Amino acid sequence: MSRDPNPQERDLSLRALLGQLTPDEEAQLAGQLRDRPDWQADLDADARALTALAESLDLRDVEVPEDASARLLARVRQEGRTPVGAETDLPLSARLTAPDAVTVAPEHEAAREPTPVAFPPRRPRAWWPLGLGLAAALLLAVLIRPGPADPGARYAAVPGAVQQPVQAQGEALGTVIRLPDGRVFVHLTRTPEEGRTYQLWSLAEAIPQSLGVFGDEGLLTAALPAGAPLAVTVEPAGGSPGPTTPPILLPVL
Q1: Regarding predicted confidence, which is higher, 153 or 64?
Q2: Burial class of 212 by CB neighbour count within 10 A (0 to 12, 13 to 18, 19+)
Q3: Which Pfam families match (predicted)?
């Protein structure tokens, strides 16, 4: 039977989305999620939303203080401790006559007419939308920290992304990153010769299938099955119907 996560679980979820869990906390969360498929589904949906947010940001000219992420995380935790119903928009007169008012009287005035004191109406804990919004703000702070001009940095910073170097004969050639939603980003550091381009291929079938051409900016694919074999070749500008040069095999993710 599903249930709403408690404050400790909410904090754990937010930090998981931001990649801030310790190994012990990751093991703890994994154990809890095995018994909570509803929670796992919520986390997966939030990860996809954060991925989409990260890809929509143009962060090249944005600067923020180095402690922005820490301050935002502190704010998330502080807001998580705010009691339900601690705030209300009701005027004083309405609160004093609210249906859920209770009677309170000091001991020395116990015989006097009791004065009704109202507790504010309890508001539902719709915490997931709030948590997602705050996690998105934290993700923004993480992503816009000044760093090297790396086309893959924005994807590598997405919570849950898996990154591997691309190598050939012991030489580092670039990076391949798999995002939580199955999309793959490929970037090679060397610029193709003039009139030539990189072309990405799926080797899942007998005949290689082109996934697109790219240059210095790299290439982001549509969602691919986990473990899909990929390769890159150098082709004439505009691409080729099939590979014409020896392929560079990419790490399987």
Answers
A1: 153
A2: middle
A3: RskA_C
